[in-house]
Amino acid sequence: MDRLRRAAMNLVLGEQPTEDLPMIAALALADGLEGPTLVELAGLSRRDPPADIRDLFVQAMAELERPLPGVEEAWRERMLDAAQGMLNGSLTHFEAGNEIYWCACHLERTGKATELVLLFMGFWSNWEDRPDERAAIEKDMRVAAADLLRSHGEQVPEQA
Length: 160
Hints:
Structural class: mainly alpha
Number of helices: 8
Order of helices and strands: HHHHHHHH
Mean pLDDT: 93
Shape: elongated
Largest sheet: none
Strand content: under 5%
């Protein structure tokens, strides 16, 4: 997931410091993205009014045809990103399992979401409590993460 999308998700979830958005915009410009509002945002200071920074970020994302997600969508994307992170090795099994559990806790209460919460809470708890069984638990976590991605139409790395 690119840094602009991650910032958008985190902003929706109340976890993105607005003062970091001008630098994120500058990095996006350096990555080759273009847009007049993105340029304007990149020129702001961390000390500019947070509401102004946020408004420009939202406008820049709209100009880039990348509107901010809704809260439910943001939690789901973050959860899927954690599953990808587990499978590609950018997150440890413990980190990813915790993140999947935490994100699933914020999803609309459905049978599937509750099942996911219980599954990853069990993995996470057992991983901590049963160090002798970590290899088997991690294998089960990888299978569950791959199943989660597949159930959302996402690609699963071959080594998963």
